[in-house]
Amino acid sequence: MSPNFHMTPDEFRRYGKMVIDWIADYYERVEELPVLSQVKPGDIRAALPPAPPEHGESFEAMLRDVEQIILPGLTHWQSPNFFAYFPANSSPPAVLGDLLSSGLAVQGMLWSTSPACTELETHVMDWLVDMTGLPPQFKSTSTGGGVIQDSASSATLCAVLAARERATGYTSNEEGVTPRLVAYASSQTHSSLEKDVKIAGIGRKNLRIIEVDENFAMRPDLLRRQIEADREAGLLPFFVCGTVGTTSVGAVDPLPEIGQICREYGLWFHVDAAMYGTAAVCPEFRHLIRGVELADSYTFNPHKWMFTNFDCNAFFVADRQALINALSIMPEYLRNQASESGEVFDYRDWQIPLGRRFRALKLWFVIRHYGVEGLRHHIRQHVDLARRFAAWVRASDRFELAAEPPLNLVCFRHRDGDEATQRLMERLNQSGKLFLTHTRLNGKFTLRFSIGQTRTELRHVERAWQLMNELAGD
Predict the structure, then answer these.
(1) How many Cβ atoms from other residues are within 10 Å of residue 461's Cβ?
(2) Containing domain of residue 425, as a range?
C-alpha cells in the first residue's frame, strides 16, 4: 500500500488551528521578546540539518522548530516596542484575509483567471480614493484607477516606465532607451528611485538631485532651474518624484509648486506617500497631500500604517492607458474574449510580473473590520503619542529635536553630539527592550523614533523614554 503524501482535510483543520493558536499566543507575548534579534551570523543555518528529510516529518516537529530555531532569529516588527524604520504593520483581520487568499490560491493575472480577484481589487482601490480624499481621476470610473503592487519601489518603477514611454512617444520599448532622458528627485527622496532609474535604463547619472530647504523639502526654484538647464543642453526632462513623508525625517515636498512646474514643462509628476498616505484617512491631515490633483501617479503603503500585512502597496494613475500602453503585451496563450472586449481590467498590464496574488482580500478585511473611523482612531493615537514624545524631548536638558515632527516620526539627538547619540542607539537596541534606527540630518547623527506599530500604546512610549534617559546618563 503506497504512503499517503497528502495532508488530509482533517489534519489540515487540526494543524491550522495549532498555527492560529500559535500566532495568537505570539501576539500576546511579542512585547516581552527582544525586539532586535540577538543571534549572530550563521546561527540559524547551523541549527538546521544539512540535508532535506528523506521522509516526511510531523507538523508538531515543524512548529517546534519554528519556536526553537526561527523565533530567536526574528526581529519582531509586530512588537509594540518596534520604533525603527517605518512600520510593516499587520493585524488579525489582515492575517485572516491573507490566509484565505493563500487557501484559494488564485492567480489573478487576468480578469478571466478569477473575476472576483480583479473586481474586488478595483472596488477596494476606489474605496481608498474616497477614504483618503484623493482626486476623482484616480478612480476606475474616471480615466485612471488603482492597483495593488508589492511595494512603493515597484509602483515608482511602473511610473518611471509609463513616463518614459509617454515622453518618447512609446518608442523606447521598441528601439531602446534614449540617453537624453532626465529624471528629478530631492536629496531626501527614497533610495529606491535610484534603483528604478537604473532598471528602466535611464541611468543613475541622468537622475538629478535637487537640494532641499531648511525643512528638508524639495526647492521648486532649483527644480525649475535644473529643468531649464537640461532642456537648453538638448536633454529630455521627463519625470519628477515628489515625496509626502521622507524616510529620514518625514519631510513633505511642496506638491502644488512642483506639480505646476511639471504641467508647464510636460513632465510626469509622481508622488510617493509610502508612509504618510494612510494619514489622509483623517481629514485634518489631508493638507499634507494638497497638490496631488496635479500628479500623474501616486502611491502609498497600506502595509506600513493601515494594519495590512506586507505586501500591499496602493498605486494610482490619472491616465491608466499610459500605464497599460507601457507594460502590456499579448501573447496568444493569454488571449481571451473578456480581455479583447475592453470591458475589464487585466492587472498584469499594470505591473512588472505576469502573475499576481489575491492581495485585495486582506485589505478588504482590514477596512471592513476597523471601518474608516477605526482606522482614524489608531492614526490619531499614534500622532498624539509622537507629539507627546516630542514635547518630552523639547523639555529635556539631555536631548534636542532635529526637526519638527509633521506626524508620527520624531527625529532627535543627544546634546553631547554624534558619539553620544550613536552610543545611546547601540545601547537601546542591544537591550532588546526596543528598536530604533538613525539617519543623518545636516551631517549630524540623528535618531529616528517612528511610532506607528499596530499595538503601540502610551505605556510603551513612556517606557522607551525612561530607558533612553537611563542609558544616556553617562
Answers:
(1) 23
(2) 365-471
